[in-house]
Amino acid sequence: MKNKKGFTLVELLAVIVVLAIIIIIATISVNKQIKKSRKNANDINKKMIVKAYNMCMTQENDLEKCNSLSKLIANDYLENFEDPYDKNQKNLDDSYTIILDEKDKADVIYHGLGIESAITKKEAEDYFLWCGNTCVNGLSDKGINWVKKEGDILVFPDYITNIKDGADSNHSFRNIKIKALIAVNKVNINADFSNSEINIVQIDGGSIGTSKFKNSRINKLILGKTKNFSLSNSFPKSKIDYFKMEKGNISWDGFGDVEVGSIEIGDGIYYMSGNSIYPNKKVNKIFFNSPCIFKGRRNPYDGNYNGSGWGKGKDKTNCSTSLDEQSKYSFDWFDPPFRLTTNELIIGDNVTIIPSHLFSRTNAKKITIGKNVKTIEENAFNKTYTEEIIIKGDINRFNDIWDKIQFPSKDKVKIIQG
């Protein structure tokens, strides 16, 4: 009988190596194809948005009805679609922004999850001057020329942790005019972006140094969990059309000499300070959508913080959904957070309870209450002036407490079913 000869160990290893190489090549090819298909889908989306915007402006001739994706979708000029890089993104305004040039020609900036791969390491090495492997010290000559000629999206890759002023005045970030400035990691911004025109500034994490965006013009400012931050210290004498805070905590202490159009408090905010320093600051619109309750009381007689834990907000991960638990916390009547004057106050659908004094001393021409608000504490709108209240959902759910709510001139307030 003949012996049956099998594969030797060397032959088996050779086969495994060949198979591994084939798998690697195939994976690289598939990843490239996925990346290409996402980019193509994104490009198509941007063209579709511009087309919808132009159609809306032709029909409506009203920028306020056409200047965001949510409005285009609501007015049937655009069908809802998925962000190709983030299928979990429900609010497309957080991924795409419509901008206009000097001739009012529309363009679209993508600043969603896919922006993380918008610039390669090689490109970053060419555009920036470096002060270490993770530290940028200004724009290179190529970067300066790129900003002047292209004015496109300036993205700081996620391995950059520190952005400095620049090796010299000729390579600084001052006086730049670009579509967007995006830092997706926990970067510390210590560079000077003063006197700049930037459509979108999006920073997630880290900190922003003092006077770094002085006298700047910004269309949309989006901040993630950014610490050591106040508007006036980092953006003195700047004009910001739309300011959104997504995560962490926010302080109004530096709100003085910044001109802000609209403010959005996102669902990741778990603490806000009071606003006694700049009361009655005027903004066009406030959109409040945080379901978390903030704990803070201040002694109205001496202004000192007391032992009840001013500022000890609840992190979103531990945010209570129990109405009984939430009702234990309130803002103090002397120093409420929304002591502002606005044309419109919108309380979003993520909010379930409006605690005592949250909107005290707010002057809002119109107030919209979200459909999921179950309880309004009687002092929630103490000394709040409004002309019209729109209630989304069941308008009768507040009948038993409506008389207790402390609206001045309540008999003149118009209540409307939303």
Strand runs, count: 20
Question: Which H/E pattern describes the elements?
Answer: HHEEHEEHEEEEEEEHEEEHEEEEEE
Task: Report the end-to-end length measured between terminal Cα atoms.
Answer: 91 Å
Structural class comes to: alpha/beta
Q: Nearest-angstrom radius of gyration?
A: 26 Å
Give the overall shape, derived from the CA principal axes.
Answer: globular
Mean pLDDT: 77
Which stretches are poorly predicted, pLDDT < 50 over at least 5 residues?
294-333
**What kind of sheet is the major sheet?**
11 strands, parallel
Strand content: 25-35%
- Which sequence of strands runs across the widest sheet? 5-7-9-11-12-13-14-15-17-19-20
The residue fraction in helices comes out at: 10-25%
Descriptive report:
The chain has helices at 9-60, 69-74, 121-127, 141-149, 231-234, 323-326, and strands at residues 96-100, 106-110, 128-130, 135-139, 153-156, 162-163, 177-183, 188-189, 197-203, 207-208, 217-223, 239-250, 259-272, 281-288, 340-347, 353-354, 363-369, 375-376, 388-391, 414-417. By secondary structure, the protein is an alpha/beta fold. The chain has an eleven-stranded parallel sheet, with no helix packed on it. A five-stranded mixed sheet has the order 3-4-6-8-10. Strands 1-2 form a two-stranded antiparallel ribbon. Strand 11 (217-223), helix 5 and strand 12 form a beta-alpha-beta unit.
